[in-house]
Every structure is written in structure tokens, then in C-alpha cells.
Design a protein that fits this description.
Helix content of chain A: over 70%
Number of domains of chain A: 1
Distance between the termini of chain A: 66 Å
Strand order of the largest sheet of chain A: 1-2
CATH topology of chain A: MetI-like fold
Largest sheet of chain B: 6 strands, mixed
Largest sheet of chain A: 2 strands, antiparallel
Helix content of chain B: 25-40%
Strand order of the largest sheet of chain B: 6-7-8-3-9-10
CATH topology of chain B: Rossmann fold
Number of helices of chain B: 9
CATH class of chain A: Mainly Alpha
Number of strands of chain A: 2
Shape of chain B: globular
Order of helices and strands of chain B: EEEHEEHEHHHEHEHEEHH
Strand content of chain A: under 5%
CATH architecture of chain A: Orthogonal Bundle
Number of helices of chain A: 9
Oligomer: heterodimer
Radius of gyration of chain B: 18 Å
CATH architecture of chain B: 3-Layer(aba) Sandwich
Structural class of chain B: alpha/beta
Shape of chain A: elongated
């Protein structure tokens, strides 16, 4: 059958199957949040270690960062799926609220994709932090030490609050990248948004490829746009009055 | 009774460059000691050695009879405050927040106690009305006065001033010097590195002229300005005073 794009019937097909895409969206959001959280929890200390750490610890952190940043994400995901000794988690029951029907997702695939995306994000987030910490004037630390704060107190109360604020624009990038890269989990058959979309247009006799991809793109766009605007607000909310020059 | 601060043959080199070549003098409680000298004479380094932001290579520095190197660096800095040329106010905290940080974290005050103490110290430098301003909203002179309040709040026995007015516009220097003069009148013990000869002459109990990492001449400021014993002192002070 000839595939003619943008036919009314194809749009009806996509919209009629919205629960399939909603399930994909559910997994995509879960994967994004999980990866960014892991990325923050590992990347934030890693950035601090790269600035303040010494010896073997810093070498290990640096080395891991170089490896993770130097490997294609699809390779990482496949590697973590087939190469890591995860227990067989079977099907993980998800959904069942907010109009999303209950469904099962491959637990091992979700864990592998979260780990791969999370660790790679940590490797990038650590660089955002490292740069932000380095950008804080050395005099801030000196003044903190002069009023007798310990190094830890100085970092905690003087350097980090300023560095975190300066990290927000870098985070915005990272959020966007991680969100879009969750689609690469299609390589290990995880039922995220793109995978679910493909399930739709691969149904026999379907011609709604362009329509499905269009809807999916729109969903990604809305998510990135909303997240970035939210972070803009956060940045403004916590902005330090700047020196006007 | 031992002197509050005593430099004894203090020697410091950065690599091959000798910055302090055996500096020795002392000061007592309530003294205001001003150190002057050309750029590179080692005067800022001398100051930073007192609270061990810089460590000396030889000789010793005594605080109330005890070597600062035998002291825990925390208890040392608890006793010796410092005001910087670059001010270095914490950019993310208000004027009040700059002063309360040390009170809360180091002196362990409650929030209310710290606030009260910080407000009284800001009032002491004439900035009670700027408590809620961020550093970027203050003028250079106001910033430096907050820096002084921040150091004062820790109730140091000795306050070090490292060129506190050198980074300020000329019209903002006066307000900072006035605050320093008030502190001196209140009996604060101060070791001041500055290029402000007028201040040195009118406020210092003792003036030390440092050049090439050595004390060239030391004495009451009037004598050094009017009847210096060394030619180098005359050259330096005479040129600046003219």
C-alpha cells in the first residue's frame, strides 16, 4: 500500500491510540527524572572532587568522566543492558493513574537505561559544577577562611550556594539532552515514547509514520520547553543581584 | 608581660624571590601600627603571615607570647581578624548575612543572637540601614565597611587591614578611613598596610617603613615624616607627602 502522509484517517489512528503513547511518555518521564537525579547525585560530588579532591580519588573520578563522555550513549545503554549483572526483574507494573492504563515495562531495561543515561549525565554535570565552582573568585574562599570557617563550611556556605546558581544554565542544556536521549533506549526495546510510537506505525497496514513522529516530536518539544521555562524561573527566583557595569 | 604581636626574624621566599628578609618588630594592645612601603616591599605578605594565610619559611611570629605556628590555625584566626583590599564580601548574602555567617557557624550563635550582634556591628560602621542590601547594591566604600563589620563581629584581639582603601575610588576612601579612625579611638589593636599617608600620619602610633623585605625605619609617624634617619625613608615618604 502506498504511504501518503498527512491523511485524516492517519491522524485519527494516532489520536485513537493515545494510551499507547501515554505509556511511552510515562516511561520517558520516569527515565529522564531518574537519570537526571542519578546524574546530579553522582555528578555534583564528582565536580567537587575534581576541584577540591586530591590523589587517587580525583584520578578515578576524572578517568571515569573521560570514559563516560567519550563513549556513544547507544553503546553505553547496550553495554549496561547486556553487560551488567542485573537481577531479572521481570515486568515492572507502571501506570494506572492520570488516565494512563496499567502496563508492564521491562525492569532490567529500565534499570540499564537509567544507569547508562544517569552516569553519562553525571560525567557532564560534573563539568558544569567544576566550571561553576572554579568561576567563584578565590577571594571568597579566602575571606571565609579569614573569619575562621573550616574549608568544608566555606565550601558549603560560601562557594556552593554561588556555584549552584551559576550551574543552572548548564543544567538546562543537560536536562534537554537527557530528555531527548532517552529515545535511544529504543535500542534495548524499552517501552519509552519513541518505542511506543514505532509499535503504532509498525502495525500491519498502517501508513501513519509521519503523523506518529510528528506527535512524538511535539511531545518532546513541549517537555523541553516547559522544563527550560521552569528553570528560567528558578534562576530568576534565586538570582543574586549582579554588579551593574 | 609579652607583647600582643611580635615579629621575630620573619623570612619568606616565593621560589627564588625573597619577599621578607628578617623582619622584626612588635606591638602592644590598643596600638595602631601602620606599615608603608613601595609595591613588592613584602608588606601584604607580612600581614598574611600573621593569620597564616601565608606560611613563613623562617623566624617566628608570636601572638601574646605564643608562636602562631604552635597554634591551631582555627584558634589563631578566631583571635586575628582581617580586612582585605578586594573586600571579598560573600556575593550571595546580604550585608547582614555577611556578618552573621561567622557568628552562626563559628561562634555558634542562635539566629536571633547573630542578627542582633550583626546589626550592632553594622551600626558601628554606619550601615544599619543597608542590612538587607546585597554587595552588588552597595558602593565600594560601603562594601569595605561591611567587610570591617564582618571582621569586627568575630571580636578579634587584633585586626589586620590589607590595603583596605587601595581598590576604592578616591571619593569613597574617606568614609572607610573614618571608620578605621573610630576603631582606633575605641582602642582596637590594628595592624594596617596602606598607601594613605594622611591616615598613617594622623592615626598611627607607630609607623614602619618596609622596603625590599626589611624594616628600613620605624618610629612615631611625625618623626619619620619630618626627620627620617634613613635616606630611603626620606625618598619614599617625601615623594608621597609632596
Amino acid at each position: 500500500m502506498e504511504s501518503v502522509p498527512l491523511q485524516p484517517g492517519d491522524w485519527a489512528f494516532v489520536l485513537g491510540n493515545w494510551p499507547v503513547l501515554a505509556q511511552g511518555l510515562y516511561v520517558t518521564v520516569l527515565l529522564t527524572v531518574g537519570s537526571l537525579l542519578l546524574g546530579f547525585l553522582a555528578g555534583f560530588p564528582a565536580g567537587a572532587v575534581e576541584v577540591y579532591g586530591a590523589g587517587p580519588l580525583r584520578s578515578v573520578v576524572r578517568g571515569a568522566g573521560v570514559l563516560l563522555r567519550g563513549t556513544p550513549i547507544v553503546v553505553l545503554i547496550v553495554l549496561f543492558f547486556f553487560g551488567a549483572p542485573w537481577p531479572d526483574l521481570g515486568g515492572l507494573p507502571l501506570g494506572g493513574w492520570l488516565l494512563v492504563p496499567r502496563f508492564d515495562v521491562n525492569g532490567r531495561a529500565l534499570l540499564a537505561a537509567t544507569t547508562a543515561l544517569g552516569l553519562r549525565s553525571a560525567a557532564y554535570q560534573s563539568q558544569v559544577f567544576r566550571g561553576a565552582i572554579r568561576s567563584i573568585d578565590e577571594g571568597q574562599m579566602e575571606a571565609a577562611r579569614a573569619i575562621n570557617l573550616s574549608t568544608f563550611q566555606a565550601v558549603r556556605h560560601v562557594v556552593l550556594p554561588q556555584a549552584l546558581r551559576r550551574s543552572i544554565p548548564g543544567f538546562q542544556n543537560e536536562f534537554t539532552i537527557v530528555l531527548k536521549d532517552t529515545s535511544i533506549a529504543i535500542a534495548i526495546g524499552l517501552g519509552e515514547l519513541l518505542f511506543q510510537g514505532r509499535q503504532l506505525f509498525l502495525q500491519p497496514g498502517q501508513s501513519a509514520v509521519v503523523e506518529v513522529v510528528f506527535v512524538i516530536s511535539a511531545v518532546y518539544f513541549v517537555l523541553t520547553f516547559a522544563t527550560n521555562r521552569t528553570l528560567d524561573l528558578v534562576e530568576r527566583r534565586y538570582a543574586i543581584p549582579e554588579e551593574s557595569t | 608581660m609579652s607583647r600582643l604581636l611580635e615579629f621575630d626574624g620573619v623570612y619568606k621566599a616565593f621560589g627564588d624571590e625573597e619577599v621578607l628578609e628578617g623582619v622584626g618588630f612588635g606591638m602592644d594592645r590598643t596600638d595602631v601600627e601602620v606599615v608603608v612601603g613601595p609595591s613588592g616591599s613584602g608588606k601584604s605578605t607580612l600581614l598574611r603571615c600573621v593569620n597564616r594565610l601565608t606560611e613563613i619559611d623562617d623566624g617566628d611570629i608570636y601572638l601574646d607570647g605564643d608562636s602562631v605556628h604552635g597554634m591551631d590555625v582555627d584558634s589563631l584566626r578566631r583571635r586575628v581578624g582581617m580586612v582585605f583590599q578586594g573586600v571579598n564580601l560573600f556575593a550571595h548574602r546580604t550585608a547582614l548575612g555577611n556578618v552573621t555567617l561567622g557568628l552562626r557557624q563559628v561562634r555558634g550563635m542562635s539566629k536571633a543572637e547573630a542578627r542582633e550582634a550583626a546589626e550592632s556591628n553594622l551600626a558601628r560602621v554606619g550601615l544599619a540601614d543597608q542590612a538587607d542590601s546585597y554587595p552588588a547594591e552597595l558602593s565600594g566604600g560601603q562594601k569595605q565597611r561591611v567587610g570591617i563589620a564582618r571582621a569586627l563581629a568575630m571580636e578579634p584581639e587584633l585586626l589586620l587591614f590589607d590595603e583596605p582603601t587601595s581598590a576604592l575610588d578616591p571619593e569613597l576612601i574617606g568614609e572607610v578611613l573614618e571608620v578605621m579612625q573610630d576603631l582606633a579611638d575605641d582602642g582596637m589593636t590594628m595592624l594596617v598596610v596602606t598607601h594613605e599617608m594622611g591616615f598613617a600620619r594622623s592615626v598611627a602610633d607607630t609607623l614602619t617603613f618596609l622596603d625590599g623585605g626589611r624594616v628600613v625605619e620605624r618610629g612615631p609617624p611625625d618623626r619619620l615624616f619630618e626627620r627620617p634617619e634613613r635616606k630611603r625613608t626620606d625618598q619614599f615618604l617625601g615623594r608621597l607627602d609632596a
